[in-house]
């Protein structure tokens, strides 16, 4: 029923934890596609063994980055539903069962749900949890909001694969490639919130940790030009959304005429 696409980059211990959370799912109708952009790599063999017959592990040697890896995973996806999971995040045991019940009960195209945040210290392995996981609700987010600013974590989205099978991530983007992908998909399907599910756990280390400085995480200079690029690429479907885009940038001290949105 589900494809779970996991891009990974030189984090075998964290990836092992992610895969272990999948092995404990009460709903077992899924296939994991792991795409590793470090070659040669050192896969977490013990964690993979627990998923025997339910995973594909791909190592690629082209340009590193999650966008290229997710695209490689999309090319291999063959299940009716697909989702993305970061290599340091986890799912609680009943997560896939809850999603399966939702899509079997009612038609859907693009679904999203709540999540938990787990802060942790990764200077030791396995990471030391700093506090209990905090539930966060995004039930107030609408498709209109997403045209203005993305507040939905990538691991909290479920896509009907036939609807968006030919859409790919823009690997030229340094930041906001997830938002770009979601906006492209929203041109095909309706976004629906699923209440009562917050069983994806997004694990976070200290903001200043070295691993958080890779790629575009510390490139604040890219935020405005990338937002303007996406605003131009995906024109607003409503006048209300255009006004909301304009107001968002105005609050940041950037005043542009409405035609930019």
TrEMBL record:
It holds the Pfam family Glycos_transf_2. Keywords: Transferase. One of its GO terms (molecular function) is transferase activity. The keyword Transferase applies. This is Glycosyltransferase. Residues 4-166 form the Glycosyltransferase 2-like domain. Transmembrane segments: none annotated. The keyword Repeat does not apply. InterPro entries: Glyco_trans_2-like, Glycosyltransf_2, Nucleotide-diphossugar_trans. It comes from Pseudoduganella guangdongensis.
């Amino acid at each position: 029923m589900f494809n779970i696409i996991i891009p990974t980059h030189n984090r075998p211990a964290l990836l092992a934890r992610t895969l272990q959370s999948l092995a404990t799912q009460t709903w077992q109708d899924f296939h994991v596609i792991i795409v590793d952009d470090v070659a040669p790599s050192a896969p977490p063999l013990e964690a993979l063994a627990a998923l025997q017959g339910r995973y594909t592990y791909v190592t690629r040697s082209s340009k590193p980055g999650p966008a290229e890896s997710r695209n490689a995973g999309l090319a291999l996806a063959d299940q009716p539903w697909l989702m993305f999971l970061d290599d340091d995040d986890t799912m609680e045991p009943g997560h896939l069962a809850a999603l399966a019940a939702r899509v079997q009960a009612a038609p859907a195209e693009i679904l999203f749900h709540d999540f938990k945040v787990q802060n942790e210290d990764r200077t030791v392995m396995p990471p030391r949890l700093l506090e209990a996981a905090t539930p966060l609700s995004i039930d107030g987010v609408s498709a209109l909001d997403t045209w203005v600013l993305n507040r939905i974590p990538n691991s909290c989205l479920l896509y009907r694969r036939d609807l968006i099978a030919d859409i790919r991530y823009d690997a030229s983007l340094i930041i906001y490639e997830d938002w770009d992908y979601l906006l492209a998909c929203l041109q095909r399907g309706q976004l629906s919130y699923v209440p009562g599910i917050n069983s994806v756990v997004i694990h976070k280390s200290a903001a200043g940790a070295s691993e958080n400085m890779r790629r575009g995480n510390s490139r604040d200079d890219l935020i405005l030009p990338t937002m303007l690029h996406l605003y131009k690429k995906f024109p607003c479907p409503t006048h209300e959304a255009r006004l909301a885009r304009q107001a968002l940038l105005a609050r940041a001290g950037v005043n542009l005429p409405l035609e930019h949105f």
